[in-house]
Amino acid sequence: MRTGIRWLLRIVFLLVLLVGCGTFIPRPLIAPVKASSAAATHRILLLSGPIHTDIAIPLDEETRDAFSFLVDDGFPLGHPDAEWLIVGWGGRAFYLETPTWAELKPLPVLRALTIDRSVLHVDLAGHITEPQPSFAAFDVSDEQLVRLRNFISDSFVRDTGSVVPIPDAGYGEIDRFFEAKGYFNALVGCNTWTAAALRSAGLRTGLWNPLPQSLRLSLAVYN
Hints:
Layout: H1 2-24, E1 26-27, E2 42-48, E3 53-58, H2 61-66, E4 84-91, H3 92-97, H4 106-113, E5 116-125, E6 135-140, H5 142-154, E7 158-159, E8 162-163, E9 176-184, H6 190-200, E10 205-206, H7 212-222
Antiparallel strand pairs: 1-10, 2-3, 2-6, 3-4, 4-5, 5-9, 7-8
Helix pairs in contact: 1-7, 5-6
């Protein structure tokens, strides 16, 4: 009994150590040199919940042009009240079958803890009031926003040049799910994808951020 408890404590200590190192060791290790002429003229948002993060980018004309391929699948990118495009990446089973915590099922949890195919969830939002406890805002330049858009666009699976929607999948009337590149597991999950996306925009994150809390902390420390 005592041996089992000791091993459990060792595992917990190791996990805490890994998360701590992943949070406080920056990635990239050396801060990128920013061009003096690169004005931070755009605001992006990190939206975080207990276990998941999304990215919100301003739905200006450039963003509508960059994601015009979504319109072909019926996504209302031109909605007159929309101000933000919200994108998140995650495990197929958990994402599709758990719109709320009340609908949590054992099989999607098991898939999330092992390995699963990935999907992208795309949604729209109107005006977002700042500040809010679950939001973190960052100002980026034109070039940084372009790189972020490209990272997100490149995360979609394409079949003969077109993205692949998941039929009849969504939490509401507007949002959509699409097939995504990569595989989801407990070590490389939604928050590590979010961290990689933010790094593409020139932000520094922790080396490994499996949790929203560690990602937000590393962003606050290094940006």
